Amino acid sequence: MGDVCIIGIGIHPFGRTEGMSGVDQGVFAVREALRDAGLEWKDIQFAYGASEAAGNPDTMVDRLGLTGVQFINVRNGCAAGGSALFSAQMAIKSGECDIGLAVGFDKHPRGAFDAKPSEYNLPEWYGEAGYMVTTQFFANKIMRYMSLNGISRDTLGRVSEKAFRNGAKAPHAWRREPVPIDVILDAPMVSDPYSKFMFCSPAEGGVALILASEKKARELGITPIRLKAATMRTRPPGSFEVFAPSVDVERGGTATNIASRDAFEIAGIGPADVRVAQLQDTEAGAELMHMAENGFCADGEQEKWLAEGWTELNGKLPVNTDGGCLACGEPIGASGLRQVYENVVQLRGEGGERQVPGSPNTAYSHVYGAPGVSAVTILER
Fold first, then answer.
1. Would you give per-residue pLDDT tens digits along the chain (381 residues)?
2. Cis, peptide link before residue 371, omega less than 30° from 0
3. What b/e readout covers 67-101, taking b as 16+ CB neighbours within 10 angstroms?
4. Could you give the 3-state DSSP secondary structure of residue 247?
5. Is residue 285 packed enough to be buried (19+ CB in 10 Å), middle (13-18) or exposed (0-12)?
6. CA dihedral (260, 266, 270, 273) positive or negative
7. What is the C-alpha separation between 20 and 110, in angstroms, rounded?
């Protein structure tokens, strides 16, 4: 059979929207995606929906229409949206359906995520030591990585500076003001080495993607974006992940290593073929580590990449062109789908001020979640 295609996209702006629930924002995104594809809700044969804290996605049918559509809820940490997309494309690849929906939304309260050790099969001492607080864990993780690979704190600052500069050009972003690097570096410290501008914030928002078989896209007369690969993988032995209580001396890679490797194999391309990438950046160091884990550079090379501007909009591999999680915030259910939304915008050439030059034809997205799960997608125009 042909490729699975993305034929419609919709987004509700990220940030804080008083008076709208997470479900409201998801419904808004679905209606935008239907409008984009020229379809009606009755045309949708199935849906996978992701939300962590804002209710069950399948309740959206009360607003969208009681058509009896198959609607399955997905909950998989920060990789929930990517997992919903993975599931949706599998339903089309199987031949069971030829048009469906992946949707994600969330509405988180202010403050850091507050997970409990028991939810992740961890001992109580792990929480008592403070490692269930994600800001503290990720600070420890990047400190280790910086020490092992010669990464400076200035490079963390450059990641955040780029994020806010790109976010200022993205209508759906939350943080839409550039922040100078000296302000980023000198801002109040949250968890050393991270200042307050180096972490994303829990947020609100919704994203919807309409998927179809290649045959169905042709019947509808829609020029599609092809989903060449979608993978979702869990962690191997010895990986050092959020909500994992230790790091082995001998490591067997990471969930991201596996998801990335398999996605490239399925798509039949390599990292050098990618023209734009959206990488999980819940904190500035995550973008750096994920550049290497996804195969775009070696550990330690990020220092040069950021100093030389290679991840800027006009660089050799633009990364997080809409500002990523740092500028957009992270509504867990929607965040991974936002990355794919942004890649579709870039491949269509509709990015406006943030458009990557040269008509990119291949785009990559990666999302990472607890307790060490990753999802990767590769799109082609």
1. 689 999 999 999 999 999 999 999 999 999 999 999 999 999 999 999 999 888 899 999 999 999 999 999 998 777 788 889 999 999 999 999 999 999 999 998 877 677 788 888 888 888 888 778 788 889 989 999 999 999 999 999 999 999 999 999 999 999 999 999 999 999 999 999 999 999 999 999 999 999 999 999 999 999 999 999 999 999 888 778 877 766 776 767 899 999 999 999 999 999 999 999 999 999 999 999 999 999 999 999 999 999 999 999 999 999 999 999 999 999 999 999 999 999 999 999 999 999 999 989 999 999 998 888 899 999 999
2. yes
3. eebebebbbbbbbbbbbbbbbbbebbbeeebbbbb
4. coil
5. buried
6. negative
7. 16
pTM (2 d.p.): 0.95
Cα–Cα distances in angstroms (integers) from residue 82 to residues 77, 292, 360, in the given order: 10, 20, 22
| CA 293, 299, 301, 302 torsion-angle sign | positive
Q: Which two tokens mark 141?
A: 């993780």
Specify whether the CB–CB gap between 253 and 237 falls below 8 A.
no
Q: Single out the residue of 103, 106, 107, 105 nearest to residue 208, CA to CA.
A: 103
**Tokens 């998989």 identify what position?**
76
Name 323's Cβ contacts closer than 8 Å, sequence gap at least 6: 163, 164, 165, 166, 167, 168, 170, 173, 175
Q: H or E stretch including 163?
A: helix 153-167
The count of other CB atoms within 10 Å of the CB of residue 145 is 18
> Measured between alpha carbons, how far is 39 from 41 in angstroms, rounded to an integer?
7
Whether domain 4-111+200-380 has CATH 1.10.287.1490 = no
